[in-house]
Structure formats: C-alpha cells, structure tokens
Amino acid sequence: MWSITIKMMKKNMKMLIPAGIAIMIGTAFIACTFLFGNTLNDTLRTQLTAQYAQANYIIQSTSKMSGSGSIPPTIGEVNTKQIASTDGVKSTYIQQNIPVNASTGDNSATLLAINASSDDRLLPVTMVKGHQPTGDKQIALPAKLADQLSVNIGDKVTLAANYGSGMSGSDSVELMVCGFTEDTNGAYGSYGGAAVIGDETMAKLHGADSESDLMFTGMTLDIDESKADAAVPAIRKLLPEGYSIETRQKAGDEALKSLSQSGTNAVTVFLMCFGILAMFVAALVIANTFQVLVAQRRRTLALLRTIGAQKGQLYRSVIGEAAILGLIASALGIAFGSAIMAIVVHSHALASLGMTGGLVFTWQVFVIPLVFGVVMTMLASIGSARSATRVTPLEALRPIEVSDNKRAGIARGVIGFLLITLGLVLTVGAVMMLRSALASSSDLSDGYSTMLLAAIAGCALIFIGLVVTAAFWMPLLMRLGGAFAALFGPAAKIAHANIQKNPRRVASTGVALLIGVTLVSCIGTGAACAKQTMNNTLDTHYSVDMVAKGSKLSKSTADKIAKIDGVKTTLYAPITRGSVTVGGEERSATLIGVPDTATLSKVLRADLGGVSLGEGKALAPTYSAFTGKILSFKNGQVSFIASDDSGSGETSSANTLTFSIIQRDYRNVDTDVSVTLFVNESYFQSKQVQADGHMLLAAVDTSKASAVDIITKAQTAIGESAGASLSGPIAERVQWNQIVDTMLALLIALLAVAVLIALIGVANTLSLSVIERTRESATLRAIGMTRGQLRWSLAVESLVISLVAGIAGEILGIAFGWVGSYMVLSLYSDTAFISDWKLNLIVLVVAAVAALLASVFPARRAVKTPPVEALAEA
Description:
Elements: H1 2-11, H2 13-50, E1 57-61, H3 63-66, H4 80-84, E2 89-94, E3 97-104, E4 107-115, E5 126-130, E6 138-142, H5 143-149, E7 156-162, E8 168-182, E9 195-197, H6 199-206, E10 219-223, H7 228-238, E11 243-247, H8 248-296, H9 298-306, H10 311-346, H11 363-380, H12 382-389, H13 410-440, H14 448-468, H15 470-485, H16 490-499, H17 503-541, E12 546-550, H18 555-562, E13 567-582, E14 585-594, H19 597-600, E15 617-621, E16 637-643, E17 651-664, E18 675-680, H20 682-685, E19 693-700, H21 707-718, E20 725-727, H22 729-772, H23 774-782, H24 787-825, H25 837-854, H26 856-864, H27 867-873
Parallel strand pairs: 4-9, 6-8, 14-18, 15-17
Antiparallel strand pairs: 1-10, 1-11, 2-10, 3-4, 3-7, 5-8, 6-9, 7-8, 12-19, 12-20, 13-14, 13-16, 13-19, 16-17
Helix pairs in contact: 1-10, 2-8, 2-10, 2-11, 2-22, 8-11, 8-12, 8-17, 8-22, 10-11, 10-12, 13-14, 14-24, 15-16, 15-17, 15-24, 16-24, 17-22, 17-24, 18-21, 22-24, 22-25, 22-26, 23-27, 24-25, 24-26
Keywords: Cell membrane, Membrane, Transmembrane, Transmembrane helix
GO molecular function, one term: transmembrane transporter activity
InterPro entries: ABC3_permease_C (IPR003838), MacB_PCD (IPR025857), Macrolide_Exporter_MacB (IPR050250)
C-alpha cells in the first residue's frame, strides 16, 4: 500500500506543491523564532557578563537579600582587604558607578562613570589610548564622547553628579583627561560606554567622605584556578550576610535565567503565537488540497477496495501521504528559516536592535518545527482520510465527480451560533459594565481585570463562532460579490457560477484570508484609536506645547530653539524648585519667573484675563495634574519654600515666600512636580529667589513644520546644555506615535506570514478548480471562448474570493479594534473611534494584486490544453 501511496503522490505532485509551500513558510517562521530567541539570549549573555571583564569569579548580593529590604553594607564594612590577600587571588575589582554630566564650556554630555581598577584585565572597558586615572584629578573618557566634547588628552572637563530630571548636583570636580576608553563588549551599551575616574572622585560625586563609605554593590576577582578549591570557601567565610561568590559561568547563567523568565521567553512565546497562527492558516490550505485529492481518486480508491484493500489501509494511506508531505515541507522550512536567520545575523541587520549575538542552533530549532509541521499536516488531512474510507467498491463503475457539494452540518451551525451568542453577551456585558463604572467614577482596581478578560474572551468566541459557521455565511457573501462581478461581462458571469460550485472549499479559502486580514485590521484600528486618543489627551493635559528645562539650559540654546521652523513664540524663564502646602499636605513645586501675563499668555494655553502678577501675587493651577482634583490653598495664599540645594531637595523656612494666589486652569508645565507657580521675574532679578535652572516655554505650529522635525531640531539644540530635557504634548506625541508605529509595523510584519499563506491558498483553490473543470473549460473553448476570456474568468473568481474575504475581515477587525480600544483607552480619556483607512485600503489593494497574480498559473494551465485533447482526457 505504501508503494501505491508514493506513486499517487508523484502523480499529483503539482497539486501538493502549494500545500507544501504553505507548510514550509509556517515552519520556517517557527524555526526563525527559536533562532531569534537564541540570538537574543546570546546577546544578553555577552552583555550580562561584559561587566565582569576577564574575571573568573563574581561576588554579588543574592536575590534573597536584595528583596528583603535590607540596607547593603559599605565597602568599609566588608573584608575586602582580606579577600584580596587570600591565597590564590591574583587581583580584585570593587564595582562602583554613577551617572554624571561632563562639560567643557559650551559642550556638555551625560554619561556613566566607573571607578578605576588596579588590574586592566578586570576593568569592564578597554583603554584604547593613554592610561587609567592614577590620581583623583584625572579621568579617562569614552573616545566617542571625547570627540563630542572636543577634548584631547591633557584637556580639562568638569564633572557633576546627574540626579535626573535635568538637574545636576552642586558639587563638581575639574578633572584632566588622561586617556580614552572603548566599550568593546557592550557592558554599558545603553550609556554609549563609560568614563573611568579615581576612587576619591567617585566618593565625592556620591556625597561620601571616602571610598569606604560607599555601598558595597559587588566585586569581581581573578583567582588562580589551581587554588580555587581552597580560595573560594575561604572567601565565602569573609563575605557579609546576603552575598555569595560564584563562578563567572554560573553568575551569567543565573542572570540570563532571570531575564529569560521575564523577557526572552516572553518574546519567544509572543512570536510563537504568530507561528502557530500561520500553521493554522496553512492547515486550511492543506485540508482543501487533500479534499480534492481524495475526490479525484475516488475511482482509484474504489478499485483498491475491489481488490481487497481495507478501510484502515485507505485511511492510513491518506494520513501517511500527509505525514510525508509534512516531513519534507517542514525540513525544507527549517533549512529556509535557518538560511534567512544566517543572512540576517551575518549581515549585522540586528545590530540596530542592539543584538550582537551569533547564530546559535539548539534542538528546539529542528525538532519543534518538524514535529509541529508534520502533526498539523496530518490533522488537516483527517477529514479527507475519513472521506476515503467511505468510498465503496461500486463507485469504481460510476463517473468521477470531484466537486464537493455537501452542505455544512447542522451541528456545526448550532455550535457556531452558540459561540457567537455567548461571545456577544460577554463583550456587550463587559462594555456596559465598564461604561457604568466610568460614569459612576467608582474604583476599578478590583473589577477591571475581569471586565477586560470578559471582553477578550467575548471577541475570541465571536471570531471562533464566525470561523466555525463560515460554511454557512461565507458562500452567501461570495454569491453577492459574484453577482456584482457578473455585471462586467460573460467571463465574469462564468466566474460567478464557478464560485458557487464548491461553497465549502471557497468558504475554507475565504476563512484563511479572513483570519489574517481581521487581525491586521484589528491591530491597525487599535493603533489608530490609541494615537488619536493619546493626542487628544495630551492636548487636554498639557498647557504648553513644548517645554525645555535643565540646570544649565543656556540662553543661546533657547535662542536656537526659538529660530526653529514651526516654533511660534518662546519664553525663557528662571526657575527654582521647592515645596508648597496644599490641602494640608506638602507638595513639590516649581516657581517660574515671567515678565507679565501678556507674555505668558503667548505660550500658555489658559484664560489669563484679569490676571496681574504684581508684588506678592502668584498664578497657580486650579487642578492637580496628577489627580485632576481641585487644588485648595488655605486663605487664598501659598507659602513657597525654596530648596537649599537643587540636588538634595532639602528646604528651610529661611527661604520661604508667601503669595496671594490667583488660580487658572493650566496643567503639566513642569511634569516633575505637583504644583507649578508663576510669579513676576523681579523676584529672581532682586535675588529674593535664587534660580537653580531655567525653563523654556514654547508655542508650536505644526502646520509650518512636522512635529517630528521640530522635536528633532530642538533635541539637537539642547544637546549643548548638560542634563536638559524636552517635554510637552509635542514631544510626548512624537515619542508615543513612534512607539505605536514601531509596534504596528512589527505586528503587521508578523501577520503578513499568515496573509501570505492565505493568498497561496487562493492560488491553490483556483488550481484545484481548474483541474476539476477540465471538461468545462474545454467545452467553453470549443464554443468560442477565447484564452483571454478564460484567464479573465479565473482572475475575477480570484478577485471575488480575496476581496469579499478581505472586506469581511476588515469589518470584523474594525469592530474588534473599537471594542479593545474602548476597554483599554477609556480609563485614561474619551476614546476616539477611528480606523486606519489607509492601512485597510493597502491591505485590500495587496489582496487584489495578489489575487490577480494567484490566477496566473492556474489560467496558464487552463488555456494550455487544446479543447479536443481536454475533452478526450475528461
């Protein structure tokens, strides 16, 4: 029986090729997913161990200690000298770092500084020129940063601790450049490398008296392997509670395992979901192929039954054929996927993502796609195998009828209807419950997760129910689409009639495309709603279009920003940080000095009519930017307590100013504090208030220049000011849109695999239809139908299948996208219900073009055979 199966496979090789391609694409995707995960793990392992330099043993805090809330010991409280003098220890390095601002007059930059090491082999960065600091007045800078600062060896730079939010510590040190470093292993990739400073400089920047007062964060060691068995236990006894010593390999494995549980495994699972989706779509293509194969072989199968073949043998023959096809196609898919990833890795295409790992093969790359591909192919052929067992010996004498006109079962319709009904109940119920909760302003912390899960489950059940019942409603849509197409001539009428001949197969093909298009449309709609909702929210919650701030934001930088195309008006103002008391609670605050309200009104979106900032008066917001609640000031006054030190944030009653408050509705001018107050700039000019920085408020007109261009140029300008940062709705919108667009592009690229397989299914359906309609095509040719008309007929058939399924998928996708958007975005603002019509149009155009291309090869087959031969063969 196996020899007969092989012969039948060879005879129908052309029919099996499209199904094989679908399997190959799906398994290639799965193989690529595992290889991508391996490359990511390899990259992370290299980065996680890069800070160990050439150390072979690591001292670090244990997870138990780090999660207990205990305060780490200082370096002076750890037996570091005894550890270093232990027999077998060649050298040690105590790890310390701090974010700093480096400046040289007009140029400045933010970077990370690490402490020097007595052994270059244990230093995480490489010295490429000069030497490590030999004293506390020296610094070795990253080579690229030195170019940015325009300094060379022997030049001076000023270093200050960076406390974030654009503010620097008041204590700064002037250091001489003694060398240049390079982060060859990516130990500090997110910082662009690291500078090296002396131990006393490190202590001063941390605000400590000496190195021994710094917290002990870890230690790397170079231990003689021949003496490690004795040295390691001895060192372990010297360690404080909560610290352990491990080999470099073990420390790297544990760090990678911790990340894999929360990161890399999640990435692999996320990508694997799309691989499974692609294989499910491929299964629909496979099922169609085997249905026609069995229908074509009914006479052969009947003859086999006549000469003694058992039902079980026929069943195993079809399943075996599927297994062979799945095995060959999956193997080719694994090879294809491996080749793609090899090209991607060796071309350094992943370097832009920070992935520098190599191509790592594991057993999962080969076994899982192979098993999955074979199993899915066999499962897809079960229905056809069961049909083969129902062939009787008498059918060997009947004419061959390959068309499958059986109606879908009632049980399937009932199950699908119940799924759709249950899904509608869950979805509508979740939406109504959330709407009611939002209207009543009740606490959503407990019930929101249940509502969200109910909505997700409801949409999933609706979609599954529609897929299950597709054999009922999809042919009706195809009939409507075909009726419209039939208006365009005789060839289109024939296409309309042909679509109705195999409703189940057409439905299966349409569902394959429906799945991909629905998901693409759903994600595109969700992204469009999220972007528009966030844009509306940002416009509501920010009163200044663009804000630049920093302790060293210079006037020259402000002037450069003011000259950018699209920036209408700017206000460069002194600021100071402190605190105020609101509603009996102390809140962080920023005091901003402005010339007058007329100037302020040009950059601040608020009603400032009747407001005058005279002596003893201050402008305060009506609502809290954090909570949205009304801010209540006792007796209409506020006492602003200025910080003694911009870095420490400490306050003193000696720096207190009391103002009469005028409240207006403006929000999020300084996003780092709870309350932003405006006063007359004379307070700063008279030194009643000492400025600890400056802020630039800008009004922007995006009709003259795009928001991206404005932000890009503004970021370039503030690069000259140490620690300066940009905020405001323009900046937030650009960042948010970039995130959404990146995620959208990634998801659509992943879903494109399923859409591609579905379009292969369209081509496969047409090919099978051409094979079935050999006599019909010959008859049409014999009565005068031209080759061009026959080609057009198949093209129309393909277009109807693709466009009807595509339009249905987009309608479903938009509906699901709106539901999902409401469930997620309504918590933050009024949801904008829009759709990405541009994306939807592109999907339909791609489907139409692909449908026309899919009809090319079946049409060539249909017109290649002369009418006389076709009639004779039929």
